[in-house]
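User: I'm preparing a small set of examples for a lab meeting where we compare how different chains pack in three dimensions. I only have the primary sequence for this one, and I'd like the structure in token form so I can line it up with the others. Please keep the answer compact; I'll paste it straight into my notes.
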Amino acid sequence: MMLKEDGGIKALVGMVGCGNIDVIAQVARGMANFAKCESQGIIQGHRKGRSLLIEDGALEWLISNSNITSALARHHVELALCHLAQNEDNVRDFITNGGVEELIRISIESSREDIRSLAKKGQER
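Assistant: Understood. Below is the structure token output for the 125-residue chain.
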């Protein structure tokens, strides 16, 4: 919650504007870890509602960068999208922002089986 209140999520999204692939990969990694923690919190019943990442505009950035040329950054972006898709309260945002199409693409094209599997699971929501 502090990340949102202090503008941290928006700051992370803004940092990727520098264009440095290492910064982009680390921001994507942070978003993937954050989305995973949120997803686990929802599964365990500790949290409800839309993802804080979605509320602060990260979904659009993740979708637009889901096919980035850097394999490391793409891996983290795909993981973040897949974890966000596990939350039923994010479904509407995925539909309106083109996230469903990205999940389908990831489930077919991702280089990692675990990510393809997670994307398929997210499509079921």
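A couple of notes for your slides: The radius of gyration is 13 Å. The chain has one domain: 2-123.

User: Perfect, thanks.
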